[in-house]
Predict the structure.
Amino acid sequence: MSLQTPLEMMYHWEDTTPQKVYLKQPVNGVVNSYTWAQTTDQVRRIAAGLIALNLPAGSHIALLSKNCAEWFITDLAIMLAGHVSVPIYSTAGQKTIQYVLKHASCPVIFVGKLDDTAEQVAAIPQDVIKLAFPYPDIEADQQWDTLLANEPYMERPVPQMDSTMTIIYTSGSTGNPKGVVHTYSSISWAASNSRNELSVNGNDRILSYLPLAHITERVMVEMASFYANTQIGFLESLATFNRDICYLKPTLFISVPRLWTRFQMGVLANMPQKKLDFLLKIPFVGKVVASKIRAKLGLDEARLCASGSAPISPATLKWFLKVGVNISEGWGMTENSAYGTCCVPFRADKIGSIGRAYEGVDIRIADDGEIQVKGPCNMKEYYLEPDKTAEVFTEDGFLRTGDKGAIDNDGYLKITGRLKEIFKTAKGKYIAPVPIEAVIMGNSSVEQVCVTGSQLKQPIALVVLSEEAAKQDKGRIEKSLLATLESVNGGLESHAVLDRIVIMKDDWTVENGLLTPTLKIKRHLLEEKYDALINTHSNERLIYQN
């Protein structure tokens, strides 16, 4: 079958499975279900509202909201109306909102579920038309009910494959975010093929909670659901996460390292590791205990679990393996539609790798160790930045990823660091922090870590303890961290040996600007903020932030 656009898939399900429940959105504890017929009816009414604005064809329409059913509906409506979507992270502050709206020249923005609604709406320029999702306290030019009052737009246009579908702005771990331009071809190809590679089908259920402004959730969850007819559930809020995941019982579940660590800590808060290890070794009891843990996590019906966005500790993967949760690592970037590699089917002997290249993707290691990728999923360009576009592509069309890696004899790829994150100590020796950080994260008391020290003789590690660890006996935690330090240093060359661990008193969060919306550390900002602390001399192996 030839490649089809998301709109063509919508028409298909509208005709063939109109009564199948597609979206499930909890509101005030009640789950609102949307069949394909109900979904497409709203899509067509919202599209009619956009068409009535008489915007030029291919206008850039911004989306600012947490994940919800209306996000999916609006995305399809933007396509149906002949425009281009520009998602903005729901955690974005004033500066980022204004930058994206100006850089992408967006005449219209949809505003939905937000934590700081009034402040974020106030950041939107007055000349941008504001359209609101049906959530409280959103000041807008038109509310959702008004848009739904439009007569549905019943045409069935088919976009050109080479036309722009969306501009996805990077999370901006360094400097201003770049607008990554994707065509219908690149996104459709990646979404359609990910469905095939992961065997996603109409019986699957997925919880959509990672930011839809990020490429992974957009392609692997939203777009893939258009091709597989997967049922999608949403959160009412972070506070209802456990309730909502246990209600949906996803068969496919994607998360990020920090959240997997939090799930682990939640289990250990109720059952100490020694007791858990003891019970898991008892033949029948172990299976029962593992089953109860999976049920409490809402993953008792999950046939595929995955982790991406950042490296996850092999120790964390092995811990989940013991309780019957096999987590496959995957890798991709905004620039290649998040369609790079995946460790599916899961192989315990390949823990620590990010899997093999997906079908249709070429991967090579350059002379400097950089991973370079090529495939139909690669972006068209960086919006309005031809110089940066030229820099990121090789002469033969490969995308420079900025990641360093190696490929084993079975074709499995392992990331060994970021080219831009490698730093030189005062001794003139180069350090790749990522592999060291991954080992430190094997200590279940550590929730966040940053290895740094470009001005030091030896590197150091800044760590943030988990909430549970912070409540435990201080002496025991210190002993555990010192043991981790010795273990880590035992596997390092002399120039890379860590001088000390610094225990931070403040969390690194999206809100304080030290994490990206996908929970990656903003290394350069951390180093700037804690410059004095990093460069304070100490003879102690373990010190605390004052």
About this structure: The chain has three domains: 6-19+26-182, 252-300+303-418, 423-544.
